[in-house]
Amino acid sequence: MMDKNGQPCPYSAVRTDVVPFIDLGVSDKCGGGWPRFILRADLEKYYLTGGYITFVCAIMVVHDRPIPVPPLNIKKHFSSLLGSTDVSFVINGETFHAHRAVLAARSPVLEALMSSITLHDITPATFRVILQFMYTDALPEDDELGDSPSEMLQQLLAAADRYELDQLKLICAQKLGDNVSVDTVAATLTCAEMYNCPELTSALTSRWRGISRRPC
């Protein structure tokens, strides 16, 4: 707002958000303002000149532009998934790679083929612990490993070796080594050698030497 000398007065400047004005025809009454912008007495004393008040306004005209929508590209994205697949089909010597979830969603027959995998070299109790570890990186407490925790740990070590779960294998080796006794050392050592666990073999050998050297 300009004062009587034609100078802008910063004390009467007010910043506002952008106010859209929509053309509604003759009934258009769109507008904006502030209920307590300035005292009437100050307005008449400092800004009223010849019955007029001068305002300096910054107006931005924005032309309506539709928001651009890129072309659909789900085909491109899903095709790129073929670079990282989780199942393969071998047909007359030729291999095709795909994703289990996509094929199962598209074909009930393929869903039935891939929805169940039968394992014959592991007990349900052992596999339950294996699954829990793969999802959580944690093993149950020893009192939750059944009647014989040592036997269960040996089974877990064997399964970890078979399915290449190296971290689980070392955890089982540590637990077996920490809880070895005269009654279990032979079976545990056999397990370590059978399932290629030199860390456990070394720990058992050192501990057994210590036990065998103790005076009776």
TrEMBL record:
| Pathway terms, separated by semicolons | Protein modification; protein ubiquitination
Q: Which domain of life is it from?
A: Eukaryota
Supply the SMART domains for this chain.
BTB
According to its UniProt entry, one GO biological process term is: protein ubiquitination
| Membrane spanning stretches | none
* InterPro entries for the chain: BPM1-6, BTB/POZ_dom, SKP1/BTB/POZ_sf
Which parts of the sequence belong to the BTB domain? 85-143
Protein name in UniProt: BTB domain-containing protein
- Upper lineage: Eukaryota, Viridiplantae, Streptophyta, Embryophyta, Tracheophyta
